[in-house]
Design a protein that fits this description.
The complex is a heterodimer of chains A (402) and B (442).
Chain A lengths: L9 E2 L12 H11 L1 H11 L1 H25 L9 H11 L7 H16 L12 H12 L1 H5 L6 H9 L1 H11 L5 H19 L13 H14 L3 H6 L1 H9 L2 H6 L11 H13 L6 H17 L13 H6 L3 H8 L10 H21 L6 H9 L2 H7 L9 H6 L5
Chain B lengths: L2 E2 L19 E3 L5 E5 L9 E2 L6 E2 L4 E4 L8 E2 L4 E9 L7 E8 L18 H10 L12 H4 L10 E6 L8 H8 L1 H15 L3 E7 L3 H10 L6 E6 L8 H9 L14 E5 H12 L6 E7 L7 E6 L4 H8 L8 E3 L6 E2 L13 E4 L5 E2 L11 H5 L6 H9 L3 H6 L10 H5 L6 H23 L1
Parallel strand pairs in B: 1-12, 2-15, 10-11, 10-13, 11-12, 14-18
Antiparallel strand pairs in B: 3-9, 4-6, 5-8, 6-7, 8-9, 14-15, 16-17, 16-18
Helix pairs in contact in B: 1-4, 3-5, 4-5, 4-7, 10-13
The chains are: A mainly alpha (402), B alpha/beta (442).
């Protein structure tokens, strides 16, 4: 094959002479466009800090890409948009309170190590953005766990709905007695009064993400032998229950900056489907299997028994939508065959639910995806399409017509 | 009507069939024609004339050498001005007969031959004498295809009217304008093969052709007409067989292995003319088209007409892209406009711009589109790596030789990797290697 020099197109006199309109650049920039709603949601809910983190992450990713191009003497590939995508997705995986060094080093790691050390675009063995996230999660776990809640006004309303949360707990947890209920009410009333009377000046409120709260609740409930123990952790329980499905859907909850708004992510995904960049098989199978498993097993850690899990709460919270639509579907690190995609999706859903319900972390999406990324070559090796003329029909026919 | 379709893959390029409602007309007789002796698969024909000879339209000027070969006839009356070696699109140093046009134009259609009492052997002989080859583009000698080995009896004859290549409309027009001729051609083949069942497959985007042939074959219960889903490569031999019969040609085998024979509409029309009017294959219909071509249409062109003659007659803007002999998916780029129209040229397509391949600039991003569209079920992304690394044995194991070179994978590849070109190269390299090994062993 004749090699064309950096970016210059060489004409090839071989068929086919026409080409589908979809090109690498169009796909990549379409993904960037599809991430705009989630970016907007991030800035709306988490304030300008989110914008700073996204900008910093994208900038670092693009510069790192350029440096790697130069070091490795490859054609300059920043125009293909893949570094921009990695930058945005990595930022989406950071809490809004992340310090600058987490953003910069994580983004750098994602491009330089996860992507280019393996040969650049198309050769990385795991999703670069998630590789970066896991790197910073291990390196600066404190900064990563400290989750920042949405901006003050929305959180104020959360504080005020504390009362309703208490009601939810009474309903869902059988051994919360009237005495506990009144204690919770008391706490909530105090908070409300303090906020309303300006005795406590609220700048921002940090709180666990919905899944974090849920996790604490699982632990509390499974360990609690009596109502008194349970109530000592009531403060963990309440916020988790306070988020409505609507809040979770639009993203008005604490969490990493790009993952909270299922709505914004869906908008982007619909755009990608319309542009024929994304076939939604994997996201549907992933989210579907996770929902099914949560419904079956989700009630167990809370002592509610089988088939009692809150599937909707689980799929709308955490990084499941972001992971399923934008990370697991990464072309490079997902299986090639449809059959492989189905199995891959089911395994992703299973792993995510196992980690969420029984694992050490409240969230399992990023670990599940990266873990499954390593198995993609095996999927491709064993789930090959059937070759025409080598199938059963052909073998039966061999040696003459029937 | 129930739609038939092949099971796997395929693409749907913009069909660009601008000339679908333009009747077939005769192109001008060119001043000079160049007839290469390799217009078919197999041994090139042996030249029978020399410079200075006067030739008549339809006179044998090239004789088939061996079984897999085909006769070649003078497509115009005139004087042979040279017999010389020259290059064609597919080979170098091929004998060409160059004839200067002059003399009478023969009328082939004044009397009809009644073939009802002719034996199948005699009919086959007539087809062989007329030098007919597969006119869909493969150019395999038709008499060879029509003489299957005894141990492989045929039970279904398939007429390929799919015409799935974008831009081309000549088969469509032939079916529309000459439905009776095609049905008669089908009857001739039925007689030769002794098959009881004929299936005609036409893509659903040609409802008028389906109607015309249905009308022409009315009352004949052995001829079944099927609408095919419009999807490239529906007209690929293996895909058509799968769509219509559900049979699968075994890997490395031929349609005769599953008792099927496939012939293209243009070939059937040529067979009809060869038997009924004793007219050898000296002209063919083709589509001259392109977005910028004003006089685009379907034309009858003498075999051997230089493409330049067509350009002079029908026009071509100075600013144009690739000029293709055949369709844009599988056709070859015409690098020299003096190359002639051959028996396999189903169209001249002038694209508005050259396709840009940025070779090796963009890596495979494993988007799986190639695997998704491959009608054979190959993994082009993987085969490409194997060919690139010269791991041909593994590539063959994973189906390299099963590739039909339809171009679907290259068409969709967002990184514009020239996959088909690499597979063609890999296949050629593998065959040469096998031949060398066989030579050494024997």
């Amino acid at each position: 094959m004749a090699k064309a020099k950096g970016g210059k197109a060489a004409t090839a006199p071989f068929s086919p002479h026409i080409h589908a309109p979809l090109t690498l650049h169009r796909i990549m920039w379409d993904v960037v466009i599809a991430l705009i709603p989630a970016t907007a949601a991030a800035i709306y809910f988490f304030g300008y800090n989110a914008a700073v983190i996204i900008g910093m992450s994208v900038g670092t990713a693009v510069i790192t890409e350029l440096i790697m191009n130069l070091i490795l003497k490859r054609p300059i590939s920043i125009a293909d948009g893949s570094a921009v995508i990695t930058g945005i997705l990595f930022a989406f995986n950071l809490p809004p309170s992340s310090p600058w060094y987490v953003t910069v080093f994580g983004s750098m790691f994602a491009i330089a190590i996860v992507k280019w050390a393996f040969g650049g675009l198309g050769h990385n063995i795991m999703n670069p953005a998630l590789g970066g996230r896991i790197f910073v999660l291990a390196a600066w776990s404190g900064a990563m766990v400290n989750v920042w809640s949405p901006t003050v006004p929305t959180m104020m309303s959360k504080g005020l709905s504390f009362m309703q949360a208490s009601d939810v707990i009474i309903e869902k947890v059988p051994y919360v007695t009237n005495q506990v209920y009144s204690q919770i009410s008391q706490i909530s009333n105090t908070i409300q009064t303090n906020i309303l009377t300006n005795q406590v000046k609220v700048d921002m409120i940090t709180g666990a993400s919905p899944l974090g709260s849920l996790k604490s609740m699982y632990e509390t409930m499974s360990k609690a032998t009596n109502a008194v123990e349970a109530v000592s952790h009531a403060s963990h329980v309440a916020p988790a229950m306070a988020y409505s499905y609507w809040d979770l859907f639009i993203g008005n909850v604490p969490g990493c900056i790009g993952e909270t708004s299922a709505l914004a992510i869906l908008l982007g995904a619909i755009y990608l489907m319309w542009r024929k960049v994304l076939i939604p098989i994997l996201p549907i199978v992933y989210i579907g299997s996770a929902a099914l498993l949560v419904w079956i097993f989700g009630g167990l850690p809370m002592g509610l028994g089988w088939f009692a899990g809150d599937a909707l709460y689980h799929i709308l919270s955490g990084g499941l939508f972001l992971g399923a639509f934008f990370m697991a579907t990464d072309y490079v690190t997902s299986p090639m065959s449809i059959k492989g995609t189905l199995i891959y999706g089911i395994l992703l859903g299973t792993l995510t639910v196992i980690i969420r319900l029984w694992g050490g972390y409240p969230e399992g999406v990023s670990y599940s995806i990266v873990f499954m990324n390593f198995f993609v070559p095996i999927f491709d090796r064993y789930l090959k399409p059937k070759i025409y003329g080598k199938g059963k029909a052909a073998i039966l026919m061999k040696g003459g017509a029937k | 009507m129930e739609l038939k379709y092949f099971k796997k893959g395929g693409i749907h390029p913009h069909d660009s069939k601008y000339t679908a409602d333009m009747p077939i007309t005769n192109a001008h007789l060119p001043k000079q024609i160049r007839i290469p002796m390799n217009m078919h698969i197999g041994a090139p024909a042996k030249v029978l004339v020399k410079a200075g000879d006067k030739v008549e339209e339809g006179q044998l000027i090239g004789e088939a050498v061996g079984f897999i070969s085909a006769n070649i006839h003078a497509s115009v009356s005139g004087t042979v001005i040279a017999v010389e070696k020259g290059d064609t699109l597919v080979a170098k140093g091929v004998d060409h007969v160059i004839i200067e046009t002059g003399g009478s134009i023969r009328n082939w259609y004044d009397k009809k031959f009644d073939y009802s009492k002719t034996s199948p052997e005699k009919l086959l002989e007539m087809i062989k004498a007329a030098g007919i080859v597969g006119m869909g583009g493969a150019t395999f000698p038709t008499h060879v295809k029509l003489s299957p080995p005894k141990e492989k009896p045929m039970d279904i004859f398939i007429v390929n009217g799919a015409e799935c290549e974008p831009y081309l409309t000549i088969d469509h027009r032939t079916m529309l304008e000459k439905p009776d001729a095609i049905i008669e051609g089908v009857n001739i083949i039925k007689k030769i093969l002794g098959v009881k069942r004929v299936m005609i497959g036409i893509e659903e985007n040609k409802p008028d052709a389906i109607e015309a042939l249905s009308k022409a074959s009315e009352g004949d219960s052995s001829i079944e007409i099927y609408a095919l889903r419009t999807r490239y490569p529906q007209g690929g031999e293996k895909q058509l067989i799968q769509a219509l019969t559900g049979r699968e040609v075994p890997s490395g085998g031929l349609p005769s292995d599953v008792g099927v024979l496939v012939q293209n509409v243009a070939t059937i029309f040529a067979i009809y003319e060869a038997v009924v009017f004793q007219k050898p294959l000296i002209e063919r219909g083709l589509t001259y088209t392109g977005e910028q071509i004003e006089k685009r249409g379907n034309y009858k062109v003498r075999i051997g007409s230089p493409v330049q003659a067509l350009i002079d007659e029908l026009g071509m803007p100075a600013e144009h892209g690739t000029v293709i002999a055949g369709g844009p998916m599988m056709g070859l780029e015409l690098t020299d406009m003096q190359f002639p129209v051959t028996k396999g040229t189903s169209g001249i397509v002038v694209l508005p711009k050259k396709r840009d391949y940025a070779v090796n600039d963009f890596p495979c991003i494993r988007c799986a589109r190639c695997q998704f569209v491959c009608p054979i079920g190959l993994e082009p992304w993987y085969l490409k790596t194997l060919v690139d690394k010269s791991l041909l044995e593994e590539a063959v194991e994973r189906g390299l030789l099963d590739c039909i070179e339809c171009g679907s994978c290259s068409f969709v590849c967002p990184s514009t990797i020239p996959l088909v070109a690499m597979f063609r190269f890999g296949k050629g390299f593998w065959r040469r290697k096998q031949a060398a090994a066989a030579k050494q062993a024997g």
